[in-house]
Amino acid sequence: MPPNRIAIGIVDPGREINYYPVFEFLEANGLLASVTIYNPYDTQPKPDIVLASDEWCSEYSVKLLHAKVQKLPTLHIADGIVKWGNVWTNPRSLSEDAGMPMFQPILADRIACIGSFQARIFSSWGQTKKLALTGLPRFDKFISHFHSLQRLDKRSSFRADISNPKILIIVANQPGYTDDEISKARQSFHDLNLYVSQDLNCRHLNVVWRYGPRSPKVLPADLFGIVENDTSLFEALASSDYVIASPSTAALEAMSMDIPTCLIDYSGLPEFVHAAWVIRSKSTIDQEFCSLIKAPENRMNYQRFLLHDQIRMDGLATPRVCTLMQNMISLAESCLQQGVQPDFSRLRVDSPDFSYIQPYAYNPDLLFPAHPLFARSDVESLKCELGHLRLRLNQVESSPNTKLFSLFKLKARRFFSRLLKSPC
After folding, report:
1. Residue 412 to residues 44, 415, 417: CA-CA distances in angstroms?
2. CA 393 to chain centre
3. Cα dist. 209→23, 66, 168, 226, 321 in Å?
4. In what order do the strands lie in the sheet with 166-171?
5. Within 10 A of 417 (CB to CB), how many other CB atoms are there?
6. Which residues of the chain have pLDDT under 50?
7. What domains are there in the chain, each with its CATH number?
8. The whole model's pTM is what?
């Protein structure tokens, strides 16, 4: 019996970019019945599941809650990361006249988390039963690109031969929520712009800026370099060799393409995005910038570790999200027939298991260039060399001179031991 086709309702038209991979996957597998804008008062047949990509807008939140009252399963497919500022310094958290705090609680029955770190953040807010560690469908093209680089062994540690490298500076669309945060963000980009315009080390770089509609309020008027906002972020990153970014989802997207990525953040606030390079003040720009350009393998190895904690990278998210949707629909239908309230926390999503798979390339020859032995791959010669060395070591240890020297060392230790114990 073929699986049932799914009728989907969405509460937030205009944000379909977060759903397109899901729609395309279901359509390609003959599983998509329809996509409509969910209206709780519509007399037409109800959708099988309701999707949201944000819960900040009161209109969307009310619709989401109506869907739950109508016993329709609801799934939040987030548009990216969560940041300290949009929860704790956002006016919504400081005054009820400005709205409701973000994710306090999560309104949907389940939320598709981008990675382990985000899931732990939500769990710390008492939302454990709402979490599904699936990854986000719109990141699948970045994940595919990352794994293709790993298969081809094309890692960023080989960037030393690049001529006219391009550094992409990405400014978050919402650089802050308070006057102090905006001021610090403005100062950070003023300092960075001054550095790249004056430092001789930067003159061989192509400096490119990218920002959103609300970003210019923190940018200096005389930007050094060019502005490129007319291409997709994926295309912009694909042609970039280094990235400096505000704490944002874009920084993770750059890291997922194995590009050396540095955060710039003067705010002093706790970070919900982590990177191997961070500029926290004017005094650290030169140090972090120079290290970023060199992109040493130990930092890149750490960047890949941080990436896997922040984005689920062990496969595509879209099939996992679609399976979760099907399971939520089946559970809702079963509970409706039994006349009981559905408990979506019972549904499990497979979590990544790194006990049997290496999530990224480990290359001691690149991490420890001072030890050329790590670069050797001539296994048969190494075996033979090891055998000869073992034999030679046995010969040395069994020689009369070696035994005499060992006896001398033992007597010397005893002599100095007695000397130390004797009174002055």
Report:
1. 96, 5, 8
2. 49
3. 33, 42, 6, 6, 34
4. 226-227, 206-211, 166-171, 242-245, 261-264, 277-279
5. 10
6. 1, 156-158, 160, 355-357, 419, 424
7. 6-136+313-346 (3.40.50), 155-310 (3.40.50.2000), 372-421 (no CATH)
8. 0.83
